[in-house]
């Protein structure tokens, strides 16, 4: 198992719970999230930047 630091841009959602689901869904594409944080919000582009640490199983 290895850990990776990733950064992702996610579309801003209507509600905080929808945003959390969108973030978790996007992060699971990269591995199993250990922790994540919203580090920036761009209201003009309607995007949030998320930084996370994920684990990936080695083959």
Strand-and-helix sequence, N→C?
Answer: EHEE
Task: Classify the secondary structure makeup into a structural class.
Answer: alpha+beta
* Biggest beta sheet summary: 3 strands, antiparallel
Backbone shape: elongated
Q: Which strand order do you get reading across the main beta sheet?
A: 1-3-2
Unreliable residue stretches = none
**Fraction of helical residues:** 10-25%
- Number of separate domains: 1
Distance between the termini: 9 Å
Strand content: over 45%
- Radius of gyration of CA atoms, rounded to a whole number: 12 Å
Please supply descriptive tags for the structure shown above.
59 residues; alpha+beta; three-stranded antiparallel beta sheet; 1 helix
Description of the structure:
- It is a single chain.
- This protein has 59 residues and is α+β, with helices and mostly antiparallel strands.
- 22% of the residues lie in helices and 53% in strands.
- The protein is built from 1 helix and 3 strands; from the N terminus they run βαββ.
- It has one helix at 16-28, and strands at residues 2-11, 32-42, 47-56.
- The chain has a 3-stranded antiparallel β-sheet with strand order 1-3-2.
- A hairpin with a 4-residue loop joins β2 and β3 (47-56).
- The termini are close together.
- The relative contact order is 0.37.
Topology of this protein?
Layout: E1 2-11, H1 16-28, E2 32-42, E3 47-56
Summarize the structure.
The chain has 59 residues and is an alpha+beta fold. It has one helix at 16-28; strands at 2-11, 32-42, 47-56.
